[in-house]
Amino acid sequence: MADLISSEVPTHYRSLSILVGYLSLIIVLFFIICKTIYVRYQARQKKNDWATGQRRVQFFLFSLLAALSVGTTWFHMIAFFFHSYNTWASSSGGLVYSSMELSVITRMGLWLKNTYLFQEAWEAVSENLGRFWWSGQIFGWTIGWGLFIGIAGRRYQIPHVWVYMLLAQFVSVSFAANLFFATIAVSERPNEKDSSFTWSPSLVYELLPVVLSLVDAVAVPIFAYQKDFMFILLVPHFLTFVPGLLGPRDSSRATKVQGEKTTRRYAVFLTWIAVTSVAMQGYFTVLLLQEFGPDVSFGEVVQQLWDTIYVHPACSSVSWDVIMCTVSSFFWALVHGFRTNQMLGGK
């Protein structure tokens, strides 16, 4: 009887194909980026025109950080896949099939058919203030970095910068960011008189998506486990692509002074985004401290926040992404002497 029922259970190839397609697209995006890096690295080696003696060291530094980023985030992401499957298998929907002799493919198809992995992960990391204290930071990093890759992508003539953003959202922000830093390290110095260096779009096209993304990020924990959660969550995911898609329509030359003026303008933008992100994090920290109560010491708060990293595999993945974003951004600032103009391609 069990065999007869088992033979009637569908495999759900469509659900399986979505997961396989997702993982395959990650590999394709990674190889597109690697191709750009390889071609530019070979060009620097052949011409021996590294801008400074340390640019080669920077390339290996950010390549190493990229490996650490994908290792720390996806170790826990794979653990999340297993956690999600086990949760489904022990639920009423999964227990129906527990006594049946089903293939691994069939069981995976059933799991994926009845599970919304993306939504499940983000609801888990937004469930309470302690978890969102970590996961909320990734919105700030993604929004600021989205503007940065739009600026640096134009200036360093990096093709298809949207690929880096897509990889960031499919894998981790820190992984894609370090690959982008490595790409810059093997790129030619930008021409400060070129239109791609001096051009900047109107505020409506560049800052409006940033502002909307920041506002939307605040709303994410409010709508967790509610009907409109996916819409609220996906809005900033789409808006972060906008700065990377903007670019000049002509190739006219400009003056170095114009380039320096544009660099200062962007430095102010990024500074305000950083200040806003810190202010938002400060606000969430105050709310969290109020939730803990006055009797909880600073050391206990730190310990609870650290414990929150490992309360759920999805929390672990996002939290380590935040940590690696912080580490990578620190090294990016360090190798440029903490000078914003150099971080943006200026001198």
From TrEMBL:
Transmembrane parts of this sequence: 16-38, 59-82, 94-112, 132-151, 163-182, 203-223, 229-246, 266-289, 309-335
Assigned keywords, A-Z: Membrane, Transmembrane, Transmembrane helix
UniProt superkingdom: Eukaryota
Name of the protein this chain belongs to: Uncharacterized protein
Source organism of this protein record: Penicillium malachiteum
